[in-house]
Amino acid sequence: MAGARVGVLASGVGSNLQALLDRVHGRDGIEIVAVGSDKPDAQALARARAVGVPDATFAAAGYPDRRARDLAMARWLEAAGVDLVVLAGYMQLLDAEFLARFPHRVINVHPALLPAFPGIGAIEQALAYGVKVFGVTVHFVDEGVDTGPVIAQRAVEMPGEPTAAQVREALRPLEHDLLCNTVVRIARGEIGVDPSRPRHVRVREASE
Ligand code: GRF
Q1: What is the whole-number distance in angstroms between the Cα of residue 205 and the centre of ligand 1?
Q2: Is 110 marked active-site?
Q3: d(Cα 109, Cα 90) in Å, to the nearest integer?
């Protein structure tokens, strides 16, 4: 892939989306061309609008089931020419048919060192477990909850007894860096999956 047309799905504040807009949008042939949400009041949508990126809401209530919603979303992304979908705080599972339309082209950022602490409340899960090292993961998305092949991870030691807010604050810049870096590297063709070893994502050494 030389460059990328990126669609972002987000349910919340959208700080990861903002990092992508600020740091990769319009560079290296990467364009964020669509921002979708399941929540009409997601702050992420306002961030997209502020820079003229088309946005749309796909609320569950508007569709008979999740599959119908996800297919509508997939069609919208395809119409925008999206070839990479980034889940940036998108709090829903995606239907298998959605994923089949973007094979190895859907990535997610998660605030824990997977496979530890998947799903919601990852930071709270890690704190309850008593870990001393926290971290973030960017991974390809499959049908499970945060179970897809790992692309990249970053860790930070936080001994003592940090609060969830302190951990979240420490992880946020790591997430932003890792997600932006991963999108750039996918756009440069530096990240691939060997079909014979699908869990082992190949990450080529950076060319700079
Ligand atoms: C991030 O912590 C991300 O890892 C998780 O949801 C949060 C989204 O944050 N999947 P934001 O909306 O990008 O600020």
Answers
A1: 27
A2: yes
A3: 9
